[in-house]
Amino acid sequence: MKLSQFHLSTVKEAPAEAEVISHQLMMRAGMLRKLGAGIYSWMPLGVRVLRKVEKIIHEEMVRAGAIELLMPVIQPADLWQESGRWEKMGAEMMRVKDRHDRDFIVQPTSEEVITDIARAELKSWRQFPKNFYHIQTKFRDERRPRFGVMRSREFIMKDAYSFDVDEAGMMVSYQKMYDAYCAIFDRLGLKYRSVHADAGNIGGSKTQEFQVLADSGEDLIAFSNGSDYAANIESAEAVQLGASIPAAQNLSKIATPGMKTCEAVGDFLKLPLEKQLKAMMFFSDSGFILVMLRADHMVNEIKLGKLAQLKNFRPATPEEIQLHLGVEPGYCGPIAGNGMSHPQKITVIADRTAAVMSDFVCGANASGMHFTGANWGRDCPAPDLVADVRNVVEGDPSPDGKGTLGLTRGIEVGHVFALGQNYSKALNATFIDQNQKPQIMEMGCYGIGVTRVVAAAIEQNNDAKGIIWPQSMAPFEVAIAPIGYKKNAEVKAAADALYAEICAVGIDCLLDDRDERPGVMFADLELIGIPYRITIGDRGLKEGNVEFQARTDEKASPVKLGDVAAQVKLLFAR
Ligand code: ATP
Ligand code: MG
Q1: Fewer C-beta neighbours within 10 Å, C or N terminus of the chain?
Q2: Is the CB of 72 under 6 A from ligand 1?
Q3: How much is the pTM?
């Protein structure tokens, strides 16, 4: 491509709202144009990168036996009502009406439509296994669209769906997709980890996420230093810390006026947070719930949501707290006045670690008062339920018993789910088995955030000058920067000949024929992250040399004009 025939629109300044480096660089490089909140046009330079990512994904999907189809962006509501997700999806799902006032949605994902296709098309066990995929626009009305295309409202996803006759078959399909994802992210040159994940509202049994490691990532990943255990903090299991020891202190009620936080109480008593219990109050279908945690731990709402007692939970209101515990927030605890039961029925849930604490400090359910020397069983009934309801923290033992956990940030770029019969049951997707009996299909679903991958790659690969593309994603692989293209016939001739030779072998070469000053050319080519640059100047040519510089090299090195094409071809030997 000759730059004069392309549309490059680099700018010096990124918009103020661009908080993360990938968003800043994508805007500065002219890869994107914002149209509305979380909605972007992909400009020509951006599309070139997007197509490279898509090509790799297509190749690996096909290699893994997946078959491409294309499902609609706008989908009738009835299928979503049939699966039950019309209600479940909430405000994130965009709903629209047609001219006849009929309900439609803009697809956030395609389980319903593919299951509808499968139930119509896959009738006999002989047609299995099948895996269908497409690369298609998705829309999710995210609460907080941000970071450019990393969390946008409109984005492009590759989604694949496997269909098998039984669970064993589904796990084979799952593993094939898992392996294909590893191949894709390897080829894209990303540093990533696969981690155990939470199934979220898609549901299912086994699920893993592919996380690109980056400090700006919205996800926290826990990983062991003694094994390959790695999990999203949403689902990383927090083990019990410490063991139960008998009570040694007497219960005493002390005045803690105005001390509504564990920190304040700890400062006052000169006790670390590890000796205190903190109370969190919720209301669910089961009524009022008191959750007790060691004061330095954080509650994990995903884990809470999985407990039967916390169906449809929300934080309790100050009025509900007053009614059930007889006190305002800040002084709540599991011990009702003088060991009596609470005025209203409540359910007490303790985290595993909180449940084995003894001689602890906790709110006394009396305004401005706390207990010290408190003990489960002696001073209040044992919790109704002991469960893992906290986030793991750095230094926790790994749940597999090998090593300790560390935490790192990641960007979720892919997700594989073994769904089982979640959707096939709801939509009655059956086939006839070998014994002529109808059976429900086993499904898996597998997503890659194609547009997010592009941003994630930049998060990992950039410097003060701009983007540094992994070779496989680069919009152009090599750039030729002639100095004085329109003024010096020799320079032009050398540049044109080299350009023709490199293009001839299928390498994406960009010839900067704008006749700009070297400073301007170099700044643009560095900003847009072209992996290699060949500079052709009058002075070098006199000695038969051009200058060659990888985007990651400090300096350019002279190379014989006659050798440079061969050198480039070697770098891109495919
Ligand atoms: P997240 O937790 O980031 O919201 P998710 O669990 O909702 O992701 P999935 O439903 O598993 O995501 O979708 C598959 C893939 O689509 C994700 O792994 C991610 O790469 C991508 N994706 C999801 N939401 C967005 C978004 N708002 N913008 C860009 N990509 C997204
Ligand atoms: Mg989401």
Answers
A1: C
A2: no
A3: 0.91
Q: Give dist(CA 561, CA 482) in Å, integer.
A: 13
How many alpha carbons lie under 13 Å from residue 415 in its C-beta half-sphere? 20
Average pLDDT, consecutive stretches of 10 residues, N- to C-terminus, the chain (574 residues): 96 94 98 97 98 98 98 98 95 97 98 98 98 98 96 98 97 98 98 87 77 94 94 94 93 94 95 96 95 97 94 95 92 76 80 97 95 95 96 96 96 96 96 97 98 98 97 97 96 97 96 96 98 97 97 96 95 84
What is the token pair recorded at 70?
């294309």
Is ligand 1 within 6 A of the CB of residue 140? yes
Mean pLDDT of the chain, nearest integer: 95
Tell me, using a 6 A CB cutoff, whether residue 200 lines ligand 1.
yes
Task: Give the span between the Cα atoms of 346 and 283, in whole angstroms.
Answer: 10
- Rounded CA gap, 298 and 295, in Å? 8
Atom 21 (ligand 1) nearest CA: 449
The CA 450 to ligand 1 mean position distance, Å, reads 10
Q: What is the pLDDT of residues 237-279, one digit of tens each?
A: 999 999 989 999 999 999 999 999 999 999 999 999 999 999 9
Which residue type does 535 have? Answer: T
Q: Identify the residue whose C-alpha is closest to ligand 1 atom 22.
A: 449
For residues 224 and 398, is the Cβ–Cβ distance under 8 A? Answer: yes
Cβ of 152 closer than 6 Å to ligand 1, yes or no, is yes
C-alpha distances (whole Å) from 462 to each of 61, 162, 218, 366 are 29, 37, 19, 56
Q: Residue 78: count other Cβ atoms within 10 Å of its Cβ.
A: 14
- 141 CA distance to ligand 2 middle (Å): 10
Among the bound ligands, name the one nearest to the CA of residue 109: 1
* SS3 assignment for 14-49: CCCCCCCHHHHHHHHCCCEEEEECCEEEECHHHHHH
| DSSP character at residue 202 | G
Give the pairing of strands 207-213 and 405-420.
antiparallel
Task: Write out pLDDT tens, residues 144-158.
Answer: 999 999 999 999 999
Taking only Cα atoms into account, the Rg of the chain, rounded to an integer number of angstroms, comes to 30
